[in-house]
Amino acid sequence: MSPFPVIAIDGPTASGKGTVASLVAEKLGFHYLDSGALYRLVALASEKRGIDVKNGHELGLLVPKLLISFKNSQVLLDGEDVTEAIRTENIGLRASTLAVHPELRSALVCLQRSFCQSPGLVADGRDMASIIFPDAVLKVFLTATAAARAERRYKQLIAKGISAKLSDLLQDLQERDVRDSSRGTAPLLIADGAKVLETSDLSIDQAVKTVLDWYQSEIL
Ligand code: DC
């Protein structure tokens, strides 16, 4: 049982769940867990150490050796600021590839649950509602069409001055969707009891408001 209320927000890559989840957490004064960042940190750390993405055993053993901390919007790995380094397409792809291993996924369970602290938590990822916080007060599956998600990712990269091709982004994102949804362990799915939020035609504010309204109606 989670000791404090949890809102679990799952969804495919670039669905906007990170933005929505962190704003919902801010509005409620809750903690925020970006579980994808943990997989990305393992992707970066394992690349630096030369660990093969196919070696689930070694990847699992790596987790307790990592010194991970989140400070405001900064992500630190072994004391180094890796906020930008974990956001590249290459690291996202590597994270999706190594996330198939059950040994790695179970090594990350306790760490993810440790984020559930007073007064509550908003957690985003792929298996927050199904595996990590099955007793979440509210479960949301946040999604958007692949075209809408590719366009959002494209705009984010261009705004950061990073060149990108929309068709390549769409293809990467569709490949990642297939891998995240078809893996044997903890695949991306709509958990039992989850409410689906289709955001292709919603603004961020509208999506945040919908989640907050759903939460209020759950706790009444
Ligand atoms: O949410 P994201 O794009 O930052 O996540 C990167 C990858 O990590 C994603 O493609 C699959 C994996 N992941 C996962 O398997 N389970 C989670 N709870 C979160 C992310």
Q: What can you see in these coordinates?
A:
The chain is α/β, with parallel strands linked by helices. The chain has one domain: 3-Layer(aba) Sandwich (Rossmann fold). It has helices spanning 17-28, 35-48, 56-62, 89-98, 102-107, 109-113, 128-132, 146-159, 166-182, 204-219; strands spanning 6-10, 31-34, 68-71, 74-77, 80-81, 121-125, 138-143, 195-198. The radius of gyration is 17 Å and the shape is globular. The chain binds 2'-deoxycytidine-5'-monophosphate.
- At CATH level 2, the architecture is 3-Layer(aba) Sandwich
Task: Give the proportion of residues in helices.
Answer: 40-55%
Distance between the termini: 20 Å
Largest sheet: 5 strands, parallel
Major β-sheet strand ordering: 2-6-1-7-8
User: What small-molecule ligands were found?
Assistant: 2'-deoxycytidine-5'-monophosphate
User: Beta-strand percentage?
Assistant: 15-25%
Number of domains: 1
Please tell me what the overall shape is: globular
CATH class: Alpha Beta
User: Order of helices and strands, N to C?
Assistant: EHEHHEEEHHHEHEHHEH
In the CATH hierarchy, the third-tier topology is known as: Rossmann fold
Uncertain runs with pLDDT below 50, 5 residues or more? none
